[in-house]
Amino acid sequence: FHLAGIRLAPKEKVEIPVLFKPAEMKIYKTQVVIHVMRDNGENWPYKVTADSNTDLIRNVTVAENGETQGILWIYPIHGMPEAPQQKSVVIRCQARQRLEQRVELLLFGVMPSETALPDAGNSATVSTDESSNTPEVTDGSSATLEFLYELQYQSDEIRSQLESLVGMQLLQKEWDTESRIVTLIFNVVFAPSKPMRNGATLVIQCTTGGLWKFPLVFIATEPEVDDVINIVAVGLNKESIVGFKLTSQTR
């Protein structure tokens, strides 16, 4: 869209509406360019020459006499489509036990890419390096698909409770070219030390565009009983004492 002829008084504000309605799961790029000129049609006396700063030349429009006719503000906009939030995946384990569970997540509408993009953060990439643990596309396609994933927590308190108890590793990636559905298989490790119920969100981003969010619920149930303590009474109205040791797992 194009907005023209907007007059602003000094210190006045104007809102620039930006609408994003993606048709596919890919990155969309555009720019918002704001061109400001004087209301009376006069130019600013500053003249742009060949020796002027490069950024300055790029951000002004110049009249025939070399004076500054207008000033440009250029705002790059990157649109990242986000899929509807999926159903929660429940990870359940008894406290003081260790659970390893494979979780399959389906990503719909993935767009293929013919060239590799730079890695960032935790990523799963197509690789020919034998020492790499990153999975390859299993259907033999030559297109390169890369995914970044991150486990996000609702608060710092939940992060402090779960971060050291949860581990995730991407084991396998399968791509169906006809349906454009990518299946990511994760190995989730959960080793709770006490009963709890906390949530997190697995955020997956494809480097060709698209964002998927999968809610995870981590439930730790009551642990097994450590031992049974029997106290034998020595008589009525007399105390019986038994001792046992408790060891703290933390300082």
Automatic annotation (TrEMBL):
One example of a Gene Ontology biological process annotation: sperm axoneme assembly
Residues spanning the membrane: none
Record's GO cellular component terms: cilium
Coiled coil: none
InterPro entries reported in the protein's UniProt record: Ig_CFAP47
Domain CFAP47-like immunoglobulin-like residue range list: 82-221
Protein name: CFA47 protein
Organism, as annotated: Ptilorrhoa leucosticta
Phylogenetic placement of the source organism: Eukaryota, Metazoa, Chordata, Craniata, Vertebrata
